[in-house]
Amino acid sequence: MELNRLVPLSGGFMLTSIVGFLISAVFIYGNEAIPKSKAWGFTFALFFAAMFVAALISMTYAPADLD
Predict the structure, then answer these.
(1) Do 58 and 17 contact (CB within 8 A), yes or no?
(2) Cα(58)–Cα(36) distance, rounded to whole angstroms?
(3) 3 exposed, middle or buried (CB, 10 Å; 0-12, 13-18, 19+)?
(4) 7 and 17 Cβ atoms separated by less than 8 Å
(5) CB burial class (10 A; 0-12, 13-18, 19+) of residue 23?
(6) Virtual CA dihedral for 27, 28, 30, 34, nearest 10 degrees?
(7) Which residues contact 67 (CB under 8 A, 6 or more apart)?
(8) Domain membership of residue 36 as a residue range
(9) pLDDT in tens, 7-65
(10) Is residue 66 part of a domain?
(11) Does a structural domain hold residue 4?
């Protein structure tokens, strides 16, 4: 059984992870207009960071040609 079969993820997946992480960072630090929610902010930041790492791994090990 071959375990090296990786499917390349779309650019939208990586963009979603970056934007989601930035929005989550706002929830961690907050300001007067946005109330702080450190638990939710940290949880979502961790989730979107994992998405970003998955996108990087997908880009690194995916085959070059997608015929």
Answers:
(1) no
(2) 33
(3) exposed
(4) no
(5) middle
(6) 30
(7) none
(8) 11-61
(9) 778 889 999 999 999 988 877 776 666 667 778 878 888 999 999 999 888 887 766 66
(10) no
(11) no
H or E stretch covering 58 = helix 38-61
Question: pTM of this prediction?
Answer: 0.74
Does 67 reside within a domain?
A: no
**Does residue 26 lie in a domain region?**
yes
Exposure string over 43-56, b if 16+ CB within 10 A, otherwise e: ebbeebeebbeebe
24 class by beta-carbon count within 10 Å (0-12 exposed, 13-18 middle, 19+ buried) = buried
Matching residue, tokens 């989730």: 47
